[in-house]
Design brief:
By secondary structure, this protein is an all-alpha fold. It folds into three domains: about 80 residues, no CATH class; about 50 residues; about 70 residues, no CATH class.
Length: about 230
């Protein structure tokens, strides 16, 4: 008698077999570096979880599909392959961070109530964290929608940059980067040598102004980063 719960793994196994067949025929060896992102989940641990869900050959009704998946398991992504070809490691780390954010948020909810009088710096940190997470969410949704619409990657980045900058409320900027951007915007609006300078230079001017107003190690660190990583601020 077939198990309805175990039958769910049959669907997973069929998808994995199809994907691993394609990986073995089109992306073996050095071609693995060209592997499309949609195949990123077909790791050895993912395949093993499917095999466990199907009983690892213990049940005769699933033996055929288990045998097929076992034959293709050598083509699943191992940690060594991921490291060698730099496949998806950034996304994996980001997903780990997302799980941490969820956990930390749940922990924090248990540590205070709405009646508590939190210190200002605590409220400010939470406000900034919320804003940063919301920005990432908005970007990923924007990227997905633009990708589905067929927009090239380089145009997506440019469109997002323009969209994000326009969305910043300079009456209430959040975080150092937004404050620096608003200062740069003010400089440009005042016509201070902005027409002949790239955006990076405007940011450097804005940060320099902030340094004059306050002894900010954060501002100094940002200025050093602008000088060392110019491509990120053009």
């Amino acid at each position: 008698m077939r198990d309805p719960q175990r039958d769910k793994f049959v669907s997973f196994a069929k998808d994995a077999i199809k994907a691993l067949n394609k990986i073995s025929s089109q992306y073996s060896g050095k071609n693995l570096s060209k592997l499309p992102k949609e195949y990123s989940k077909y790791t050895t641990s993912y395949v093993d979880s499917i095999l466990i869900g199907l009983g690892n050959g213990k049940y005769p009704e699933y033996k055929s599909i288990v045998d097929s998946l076992n034959q293709l398991r050598p083509y699943a992504l191992t940690k060594e392959k991921v490291t060698k070809y730099r496949l998806f490691e950034n996304a994996e780390m980001a997903m780990s961070d997302v799980h941490k954010i969820v956990k930390y948020s749940n922990d924090i909810q248990q540590l205070f109530s709405v009646q508590d009088n939190l210190e200002d710096w605590v409220k400010a940190k939470l406000n900034h964290a919320c804003d940063y997470v919301a920005t990432v969410r908005d970007y990923l949704k924007f990227y997905r929608d633009e990708k589905e619409a067929g927009t090239p990657d380089n145009q997506i980045d440019e469109k997002w940059t323009n969209k994000y900058k326009k969305s910043i409320n300079c009456s209430n900027p959040k975080g150092f980067s937004q404050k620096a951007h608003c200062r740069a915007r003010k400089l440009r609006q005042a016509g201070k040598h902005t027409k002949s300078k790239p955006v990076k230079e405007c940011y450097k001017e804005a940060i320099s102004e902030l340094l004059k107003e306050q002894n900010s190690s954060m501002a100094m660190g940002a200025l050093k980063q602008l000088n060392s990583e110019p491509s990120k601020h053009r």
